[in-house]
User: What shape does this take?
Amino acid sequence: MDPIKLDTTFYHKLLLKKFNLLLNIAQLAGFLPFPAYVLRQDVERLHFRTLVLTCLNLTFAVLIFLTSFVCYLAMYIYYPDLMYKENLPAVLQIMYHVENWLRVVMVLIALVGPRLSGRYFRETIDTLVHIMKLFDRATKIESILTAISVITNRLLLLYGLHALIITVTVWISTEHPVSTLLNVSYLAPYVTIAVYILLYRALLASIAGIVGCLNDNLREITLQDRIDPRRTYGKHTTISYIMLHEGKERETSPLDVATIVRLSTMHMALMRLARAANKHFGVLMLIIVLSTFIQINMLLLELYHNISHPVMPEYCLWVLFLHAIVHFTFFFVIATSNHAIQQERTMLLLHEFKCSWSSEQNMTVSNTPLSSMLHSIQNANTTKLPGQELPSLKLP
Assistant: This one.
């Protein structure tokens, strides 16, 4: 462990330091309310300033949605020739209109959701920070968060440059006021997608990184003596079982039962965080995936028609190609975030094989609140009572 036992404040500040740029952009765009718990914003001393900033944040969020909605509505009313493409098949026209209104709904959900989910964000940050404190590997955790923040900032730069290129291209190739309406109706959903998938990635990648560290420690503890003839590992198809009651009695290299149980409990807590994150962001991620899928198909179709029968300038075709690639990265970011969790998900789980716990006791553990489980780690008593058998653990 690190020489100095660090408190939760250190780890909360570490999270803020690594993702400060993304979180501030999210708040400036209205996707995080003011004051935001994750940003550790002071709300006690400056009451008037807090009230003013809260009202400005809420007003800006409302203006973003109304502007996006009005721009789409104005284009349907005043420029129907742009919105209703007669040369496209009916299926593609339906997809196009579905995408437009999905984007409006997406902006609304992204702006309203965080203001109704303050408790979720607070509990998620508190749990994640508490697990970091219990794990007590500041150097490892900081290196993981640094790697995640570097990739996040690079993606943020890519999406920012892409938005600038698209905006300038539309202004050059289209006359006012159509160019303004197109840019405003496009930028609000685009910023929503970019900010939210980066927040989603930052959360899941952080969880996966910490779980990876837990699993590394578990491997060091449980696989430290492969050649021991009395090793406590038995194969059952593709699953390895570790019997803690046998491992504790080994003459050489006894298993550190307390550490295994502590790491296992933190592992379960992180998996619950990952499930909660997918549940919370699930609807918005589905809308983003569906909207992006339609957008990519429409872009590729437009590229195909313009290559066979050129209508746009050549530079516009390159911009459309870049547009399609950037939208494809949205799929990639969402998929890799979940894949990182999936890779670490099944390293160590409590099970009933040769275990003295009954089904009712296991059900009680699975339904125990996360905070109670984590609190019990600090005060766990590892003394084996007479006649009591320690639970087994399952490793893939």
